[in-house]
Amino acid sequence: MRYAMAVDTKKCVGCSDCVVACQTENNVPIGYCREWVVEVMAGTYPQLEMEIRSERCNHCVNAPCVRCCPTGASHFSDGGIVLVDPKKCIGCGACIASCPYDARYPHPDGHVDKCTFCIHRIKNGLEPACASVCPTKCIYFGDMDDPNSNVSVVLKKRKFKTLIPEAGTDPQLYFLI
Amino acid sequence: MTNRRQFIKITAFGAGALAIGSGAYKAMAGFSSTTEAAKLTVNLTRTPTYCEVCFWKCAGWVYKNDEGKIWKIIGNDDDQHCNGRFCPRGTGGVGMYFDEDRLKTPLIRTSERGKQIFKQASWDEALTYIATKMKDIASKHGPESMALFTHGSGSSYFSTLLKAYGSANVAEPSYAQCRGPRDEAFMATFGEEAYSPEITDIRDTKCLVLIGSHIGENMHNGQVQEMSDAIDKGATIITVDPRFSTAAGKSKYWLPIKPSTDIALLLAWIHEIINQEYYDKKYVEKYCSGFDQLKEHVKDYTPEWAYGITTIAPDQIRKTAKEMANAAPAVIVHPGRHVTWYGDDTQRIRAVAILNALLGSWGRRGGFYRPSKQAVPSSEHPEFPTPAKTWSDAFPGKYSVASTPVSNALIDASIPENNPGFAIKGWIVNGTNLVNTIPNQANTLKAIQNLDLMVAIDTMPMEITGWADVILPECTYLERYDNLRVSPHRKPAIALRMPATEPLNETKPGYWIARELSKKLGLEAFFPFEKQEDFLDWQLKKIGSSLEEMIRIGVKTFEREADDLYFANDEAIEFPTDSGKIELYSLAFEQAGFDPMPKYIAHEEPPAGFYRLIYGRAPMHTFSRTANNPNLTDLMDENTVWINPKVAKEWGIVNDQYIWLKNQDEIISEFSIKVRITERIRWDSIYMVHGFGHAQKQMKRCFGRGASDTQLITKVLTDPLMGGTGMRGNFVTFITEKTEQEVAS
Ligand code: SF4
Ligand code: SF4
Ligand code: SF4
């Protein structure tokens, strides 16, 4: 099993619904977030192009944050989901420094926090909160080892990219382009 | 115009209406977002609601956590407005409840207006104060001297109250400050409006034309969802906007039009579609009147003619006209929503309506569908007294096309110097922050100073509440029942809102407030049910449901009585216009003394060193309503002024710098605003999101964050047909540092 997510940049409108749904679902304190929206512009008026995408932890196969965590708080869970165990985390911040995607933040309770792929929901057969709320239905989630999963199907059909592939992290957050 | 609302199919109550899918959890392949309740019911309770963060009114569920506190709001899968997905504002609606700056108790002013000195009052004291003043106004000036400005679910209660009292002056700023021109233009053409939610069949369209309508930045939920579906299915999107909007970024054609010239483009499209014989001949012949006059009218409006005005190249105009024709009738030239721009807005939207008629999209799949609405009984009460005068007697002959009271006319009638036919002496303002809603703030404040009574009913301390004599704190939509949501859609449906929790502090539901006030005025016969839930149960039982059932399912969808979502082939249709046809040439407008077909009139251009002020929306805010919402200010806590890089270079302005804006009337923004240098805006315009720059200190999170466009909109281009306040005729320049004098002023 290998969980992954794909975000369709052709449909994402940058509304940030995913961000606020993640905050309420996961009780992320106000002022912090596990995901965010990026707008990339190219060209000059009126020859313009714009890409909008919703970003979060890439749940890398080769995760630098897991490798550098001194306490083992950062670890791989089912399906390759990268998690932080708040009980083990001492808040040293080594993982924050090592993440090429800036996906982690120091939680005011003293531990580091990040996207969990909503593991508590997927265990119950629900989609991650962000995927289930997105008004444009542009977030696809599923098991890469299952050829019929949402994410496998859409990655077969569409062109895609990952972010900072050169970091060698083998990210599992894909962007449909 | 005759009988105006016929397109809509009202499904009779009772009549064997069939509920579909309600409350049944649909199974989906793989992971499912639709089984929320089934899977997560442990320790959780959920109650139905429909959202009040914007007019789209998506139905959903409020979940509470183990401690019984409101946790999250999730869309109801059976709801056509949201299909189980709320927009960011609806998801962040929890913040309306938790906002610690909320109004908590009734307040009565103890000093002059504008100085915020209030004393806490009990409900009885506050309502007695209002009733006494209202009786006073009625005896001195007549009850028609009271006006209600209202927005949202409370409107129906306060409107009942005002009508019972003897005044029909009930204005919703969503008419004259927003969609009024569109409604009148569509009614003049098709005999019906474009409705809310709009009856645009976007999910099945092959071509969507957006003119200044920024779906994706306006999160009118169903439309955003359907636009995404249309993108998936390969629909062509054509966006006309001086700004590279989000929708422009998703479009095959972006036409970066020179602001204020849209009518020229529309006329050229009409010209091209007629001259190339792209129009739907059968449809036009069967359903439309005035084609020959229209053909004659547009004969000189060539793409070349429009090029000189709009800066859109003729081949772009031709290509896009062809795209529309190829897609027809599955094409939507979108009617827009906030359309009060230049004062000729009804005529501009008439051109939009005419274009749709020529393409045969009205009543066709992928164009505009025929909505259907569930009929629900209303409670029985005595007949309303007939008011001696109504809003139109204040300025006889003005805005004769307006089908509902014009808010700005009521404001003008509150200022004695305007010599109104009768004077407005008291206002009730419910759920609308008039100071930031109506352009020309000085005029609004002047009107307020002339009133004998000003009551503000709101959940938050807004700018407008600071000017009230009495402030009544309403509880949020998460703490109250409201009337059933009965909106037109593809299928008739109803939705229930009920309290997820008790009202905080001394806040009360609108229904309770209106009813208690009616008692003090001796008008309680107009509110026969003491509790709103008793009324709802009575009403629901009449249509074969019950409060108990609705609490369980939240939304009940019925089948249409007939399979008539679209016109049938060769269906004989009598349109509810004067001629019974779709009027390309408007007899009603002609009769009222206005142009029967739209004309292009050049508008004023920005003087040197000034830029046209264009404002719009951000997906995570609904104007003042969400300005202080903790969850939503977390996503966006100030607006920025978008400036083209060439302009910024000329001015030596850099990104993230804070500057002030000064308009053509020397009005300087009260607060500074952060610069965003971006190619996404034309060099002759600047852009900012509406709803920021709040001057109300009691909204701690949003006070002084960003600048208010309304403050800079002092020039109003009023639509002579229906009184709409055109707001895009204002120009601003930059002030990089405020001099002492300017700071003092
Ligand atoms: S909710 Fe969907 S459309 Fe909105 S920003 Fe997130 S991914 Fe994009
Ligand atoms: S998967 Fe869950 S935790 Fe991760 S960004 Fe989406 S909502 Fe947040
Ligand atoms: S569109 Fe958004 S704000 Fe409007 S009713 Fe729906 S969820 Fe609420």
Describe the protein's architecture and organization.
The complex is a heterodimer of chains A (177) and B (745). The longest helix of chain A has 9 residues, at 17-25. In chain A, a hairpin with a 2-residue loop joins strand 2 and strand 3 (47-55). Chain A has six helices and ten strands, in the order E-H-E-E-H-E-E-H-E-E-H-H-E-H-E-E. Chain A is globular, with a radius of gyration of 16 Å. By secondary structure, chain A is of the alpha+beta class. The mean pLDDT of chain A is 96. A four-stranded mixed β-sheet of chain A has the order 8-1-10-9. Chain A has a two-stranded antiparallel sheet with strand order 2-3. A two-stranded antiparallel ribbon of chain A has the order 4-5. Chain A starts with a strand and ends with a strand. Chain A has a single domain (3-176), classed as Alpha-Beta Plaits (2-Layer Sandwich). With 745 residues, chain B is α/β, with parallel strands linked by helices. Chain B folds into four domains: 1-100 and 477-508 and 529-566, N-terminal domain of TfIIb, CATH 2.20.25; 102-172 and 404-474 and 509-528, Rossmann fold, CATH 3.40.50; 179-370, Dimethylsulfoxide Reductase, domain 2 (3-Layer(aba) Sandwich); 611-744, Barwin-like endoglucanases (Beta Barrel). In chain B, 29% of the residues lie in helices and 15% in strands. Chain B is built from 25 helices and 28 strands. A seven-stranded mixed β-sheet of chain B has the order 6-5-17-16-15-7-8. In chain B, strands 22-24-23-28-21-25 form a six-stranded mixed β-sheet. Chain B has a four-stranded parallel β-sheet with strand order 11-10-9-13, with helices on both faces. In chain B, strand 10 (236-240), helix 8 (246-249) and strand 11 (253-255) form a beta-alpha-beta unit. The longest helix of chain B is centred in the first third of the chain and has 19 residues, at 123-141. Chain B is globular. Chain B starts with 8 loop residues before the first strand and ends with a helix. Residues 1-43 of chain B have low confidence and may be disordered. The interface between A and B is large, with 44 and 56 residues. The structure holds iron/sulfur cluster (3 copies). One iron/sulfur cluster binds next to helix 1 of chain A.
